[in-house]
Amino acid sequence: MEKLLEFRGIGKYFPGVKALDDVSFDLYPGEVHVIVGENGAGKSTLMKVLSGAYTADAGEILLEGKPITRNSPRISEELGIRMIYQELNLVPELSIASNVFLGHELKKGFFVDKRAQEAKADELLRDMGIQVDSRTLVKNLGVGTQQMVEIAKALSKNAKIIVFDEPTSSLTDSEIRELFRIIGLLKQRGVGMFYISHRLEELFEIGSRVTVMRDGKHILTEDIQNMDMTRVIEGIAGRKIENLYPHTRKEAGEALLEIRGLSGERFEDVSMTVHAGEIVGVSGLVGAGRTETMRAVFGIDSYRAGEVLVDGKKVPRNSPEKAGRMGMCLLPEDRKVEGLALPLSIRENSVISSLKLLNPGGIVKRAQEKTKVQEYMDRLSIAASTMEKLARFLSGGTQQKVVIAKWLMSKSRVFIFDEPTRGIDVGAKSSIYELMDELVMQGAAILMVSSDLQEILGMSDRIYVMSGGSVVGEIDGSEVEQSMVLNLAFSNV
């Protein structure tokens, strides 16, 4: 079969950084070519070169055997190359049809032919098996359906190649199944696809071949049937990972966190206990009320009944500051929006919750601050050339470590992790798990919300399962099976 696209020796350089170094691999028609690697491995940079957002400094790209001599986002689209990013590029106030044909409207004379656009968009959606009226405003659609609109938009421009960048990060299980069904249809039509994801289990479900990238280099490309999870993980990390989930179970100590009968807008009568030396998982479907409960526990959101205790002392309602002072902290699901101040440096983010501790009497002791920050950067292996590096330039895994450093410096003992490894590569995941294990070995208590069932099973001493805003079961981690969690998760839907 003739190659649809070929990268030959692609290089891309930024000041002080070799982002891509002699990268070569290819894509065939009707293939799902999965690209995996740590944050900063070069995956997104390579796709930006393909899309024309960046110009390669070395090498060439061949499309159907012919070199692409000039490139830009517009030229890339004209050549049939379409990008579908994690943050969807749609106009919420416009209809599906208007979004599908935005920038290449169907016209009747000088005017946009709305009826023709709606008819064509309806046809595209029908072909994809999507039952939705093209006149529907995009803002009234779920994330999964919006993604289908992006795909319809690509097909309206006769896409030959579609790049999916972390397409399932915000989708429910049913929406993921629907996406995979559509990808199967695209394969049958001969569309070549690059698929970037940190969810490694997905590559074995939909991938034809897998390419591993590391430090801007092409490490390997292999048929999926010749790969296993261990080989993929070790290729990504560049080292052997004997046990991805390293948690060492020990005898639990005293109860550090008690949630008693908590009721609020999205949860009802929730009770949980976490002891010193324990990692307690909270599982459930999207919409089960897990995140809402944790936000109320930490005082971000209000609740109408119940109480929260840390070390036997009642935590005041609606006061994250007081909860923090009592030794509790929340690592939120959206670390970029709620966990960090992205325009601030590693140092500034790290000390923001412990300014009074580090600077008693209100006198700023910058040298002491820097010494303490460096101590935690070393302890957590925070990869950065300087503590003055801005948080927005850090990888997802490093950002998560800075959030953890912030709370460790404030002497926290009760950690609420909400989706601790979402959007983080496997190498960084391993580091986060090791850190969590270290924390509980030192007597901390961790309550971990996760949609990753393998993470829940691999790292939890006990598991609470939530469904419909309530706790529907508690399972001992040593006896748990995947089916037990799933059965409970669906019990109150």
From TrEMBL:
Domain (ABC transporter): give its ranges.
5-240, 239-493
Q: Where in the cell is it found?
A: Cell membrane
Give a Gene Ontology cellular component term annotated to this protein. plasma membrane
Q: Which GO terms describe its molecular function?
A: ATP binding; ATP hydrolysis activity
Give the SUPFAM superfamilies listed for this entry: P-loop containing nucleoside triphosphate hydrolases (SSF52540)
- List the InterPro entries: AAA+_ATPase, ABC_carbohydrate_import_ATPase, ABC_transporter-like_ATP-bd, P-loop_NTPase
Q: How does it sit in the membrane?
A: Peripheral membrane protein
Which Pfam families does the record cross-reference, listed alphabetically? Answer: ABC_tran (PF00005)
**Keyword terms, alphabetized:** ATP-binding, Cell membrane, Membrane, Nucleotide-binding, Repeat, Sugar transport, Translocase, Transport
In terms of Gene3D superfamilies, this protein maps to: P-loop containing nucleotide triphosphate hydrolases
Record's protein name = ABC transporter, ATP-binding protein
Organism, scientific name = [Clostridium] asparagiforme DSM 15981
